[in-house]
Amino acid sequence: MDKVTADVLSIDPERVAKEIEESLRGIVSRELHRRGGVVGVSGGIDSSVTVGLCARAFGPERTLALLMPETDSDPETLDISRQVADAFGVQTVVEDITEILQATGCYERREEAVRSVIPQYGIGWKFKIVLPSVVGSEGYRLFSLVAQAPNGETIEVRLPAEQYRTIVAATNFKQRTRKMLEYFHADRLNYAVIGTPNRLEYDQGFFVKLGDGAADAKPIAHLYKSQVYELARHIGVPDAVLERPPTTDTYSLPQSQEEFYFSLPYEGMDLCLYAHNQGLPPEAVADAVSLSPEQVQRVYDDIDQKRRTTRYLHLAPQLVEAVFED
Amino acid sequence: MEPNQANSEAVERYLRDFLSANYFLGEDPSQLAASSSLIEAGLIDSTGVLELVGYLEEQFSIRITNDELLPENLDSIENIVGFVERKRRSGQAV
User: Which domains, and CATH codes, for chain A?
Assistant: First the structure.
């Protein structure tokens, strides 16, 4: 049995960058009949690489970096996003989406749901949603709400389904508002909206339907996250992004992606997903991710379950009868 | 009979009604075997487990701890009925 090692996902970044650039140019001009790209830049690794690739593919003058902070965003986000745009010489537009989110009731609806399980939640409090570790237990993982009082005291309670769904649904206003603005700028400039999911996110359904899941092209959706980092270093993404731990930057308390969604930090998740895609048994990757084969099996099971439960996110509207005929 | 006093047959009926009302269990839900896996087969998802736990706690006046969120307690109708029975027998009803 061949063992998976950490270098199995190494790429030739210049070759990969060139392939993506060429593909992007073809998709945007020949297929979409647009003349450039809009990218929502969050200061994270994926959007930074995507905007860099767009600048290389279309030219910096035909790439727009849209910066869309809101009240829960990390204060560093805007500055880091500007550094990214500067590094690639692309134009930026800042759209603070806080007022739009207030108008939709995003914050109010969410806080009402939080208060229904933590009545003392109020001004100055912060919160996030977390999941227990996959590898730590064979049990089902249920979402908990973690709230922090202004004095630093934290409370954790299991979330009832209704409140969980309300909080997520209200939070999804953020991704959908951002996408609406990306399409506004794309329409006015005759550009395409370029999406930023990496392979983990795309495969595992870590996106909001018609929010960050919507785009005209998704140029890095085939790349594992560690490959996105390799590409980032090669094309000159600023160190501030490379050194920043991946977060959702969505809730008022900082939330890591593995607290909310993935079973493992991305390096381990990449290797498990790769091994599972190759049909390799858990033993083949266990050493590389420092887990027991039983724990890897739980990660495999979690991968399969997420594929099942998020399949609908990938589906186009379902028709009763086919409409277009080739 | 009140749900929190129901015998195991009645618990199963309440449970089947809840599952049929909330999830797609096939064309004829009554044909779903009591031993069929609900979660592994994708009949209910992780949010469904959250709903199921909330339903069981409220309907049968029990409190389910995180340590009890296991397939042997919750992954089939017969497992759930047995789990509810054990919880009530052990006096952990609240």
Answer: 10-102+167-251 (3.40.50.620), 106-163 (no CATH)
